[in-house]
């Protein structure tokens, strides 16, 4: 599933102002010299900090290089990067995710004592979870480099993702078209909208998630900035299929097992995860496995 929500209509003006400020702050961070950014270097055990180009390979099988930098900030702030504004932004994102999760459970008519709160009861703000706010910067490319991509095809690791883009976004975000296995179509991006993706945890629970990627736009000289809030279930949450009246009737569920995306390969390599925390650990190990193999990932 993928949806877009218009903050201009749903939110308050200050929400939009805060979003623009967050995008501006993020731009300033990436413009800093490497020596400064490295002070907040990515730490694998916390999944927080700054990742330079090439640190991640979201699809280990593809020969593509991902031209992107990222800064991960955790909901629980064990990363100790300081900013009051970020804390507030994270809280707002989490609140939006909870509302979406309630709507999602209601649409699925889940048969459980939790009812429409089935998902939200497993995403309590103060419980340990892998939630991360991630700023992304895709630098301009001088020319169209072969085998380069901004973000390779993938599903996100959590339950749902909120994606925020700049007004001047150069485009490039694509999703797999509903009803197909690997036909990518461009996402219509609009200023002031939140793009919502469903991730791996929703896939475990319902059998479906959004595969997406970011390609280099027609004009590769235009950089791209985005902010993603990856909402995760509480660490101990089980990954069992939900009992849903709607899903029982759904004959359109696509078998993704033949897709070459790394979650399946990773499952074979690391064993079947049983909880949200185990799933995240598996995915993170896998996207950094090329660095470990090269001896490049240090704590
Ligand atoms: O930058 C974007 O638009 C998407 C980023 C993304 O898909 C991700 O970081 O998981
Ligand atoms: Fe993503």
Automatic annotation (TrEMBL):
Protein name (database record): Fe2OG dioxygenase domain-containing protein
Classification of source organism: Eukaryota, Fungi, Fungi incertae sedis, Chytridiomycota, Chytridiomycota incertae sedis
UniProt keyword terms in alphabetical order: Iron, Metal-binding, Oxidoreductase
Organism of origin: Boothiomyces macroporosus
Pfam families xrefs: 2OG-FeII_Oxy
Family: Belongs to the iron/ascorbate-dependent oxidoreductase family.
InterPro entries cross-referenced by the UniProt entry: IPNS-like_FE2OG_OXY, IPNS-like_sf, Iron_ascorbate_oxido_reductase, Oxoglu/Fe-dep_dioxygenase_dom
Domain Fe2OG dioxygenase, chain residue ranges per copy: 129-233
GO terms of molecular function: metal ion binding; oxidoreductase activity
